[in-house]
Amino acid sequence: MSILVTGGAGYIASHTLVNLLEKGESAVVIDNYDNSSPEALRRVKQLTGKEIKAYEGDACDEELLVRIMHENAVESVIHFAGHKAVGESVQKPLKYYRNNLDSTISLLSAMKRCGVTQLIFSSSATVYYPEDEVPFREDMRLGCINPYGWTKFMNEQIIRDAAKADPDLSCVLLRYFNPVGAHPSGMIGEDPSGIPNNLMPYICQTAVGLRDHLTIFGNDYNTHDGTGVRDYLHVCDLAEGHACAVRYARSHKGVEAINLGTGVGYSVLDMVNAFQKVNNIPVKYVIGPRRPGDLDASYADPSKAERLLGWKATRTLEDMCRDGWNWQSKNPKGYR
Ligand code: NAD
Ligand code: UDP
Hints:
By secondary structure, this protein is an alpha/beta fold.
């Protein structure tokens, strides 16, 4: 039996594959390499010494999904595939709704046809109602402020409705907070195309000389130093969270939304200072205006993940900064 990993060459998926393969699971991948490179999968193979069968194709292609499920005795699916750039989703909402919703619908339909009942879905902390008090708990109200966020919200609803209609389904909606860092080997990591939107890759690319300086988006937020606070999570802890969710789905039915975060918030300045200290390298920055739509603070209540999945983040801020820089300095241009 194998686990189908959609978007398997991506940042979080590649780390999850390493974790699963090291645990003796077998995995099969579908990716159209829209935002990734097959090189990531070659490196996963090199790291683990295990084969991964990869199909180049679109996760919206239901017939291809059915074929993959039949050819590989698929038992469960981890659905990472999707577009994820918030800014682009505002400019091109239909591109986001089409890809992110179609892929989930095609997947659920293919699962039904093949009798596959376990689904782990990549959701996001962005589904939480932005004006609510942190920490965010899974039972709090939801609401989004951009099309990317709405695709996560709608996908959660689609999965809930599918599970209501089919009591055999077992689905875990993982709401990630802010994944950062890389595998400690420095062989796989985050490889954003173009100018990074997210803080950590921007810091890394500034440190390596690809960007002149970081712009900190606002220092007048209601936080301990005025810069935005987020719940940064080591991608290897996140990968372990998926392995725990796969295990959970094997022995439970129904749908659970579960936060994957540390429960601790760090500000932008905390991140810049920690990165400089741990890696002994300067990061030039300037303070700029706020980025529209940004919250003062976002961090998780991670207690449900510990209760249901037995999962808790164990890696520190220092680990995140060290491993992120190790990847970036060894691969200044990513997988290219
Ligand atoms: P990523 O872009 O590195 O990985 C996504 C992968 O999906 C890529 O390899 C891409 O080529 C592939 N893909 C996209 N559309 C596809 C399609 N139609 N068919 C086949 N492959 C397709 O992104 P990531 O950071 O690893 O994120 C993985 C998932 O987690 C995404 O769904 C994302 O929205 C979600 N998520 C990410 C973050 C984050 O900060 N990185 C936070 C919360 C949620
Ligand atoms: N941020 C910043 N400069 C950047 C990118 C991000 O100051 O170039 C800030 C952003 O305002 C937020 C934090 O860093 O407070 C995390 O941003 P990111 O986009 O990584 O995650 P998200 O806001 O989606 O949680």
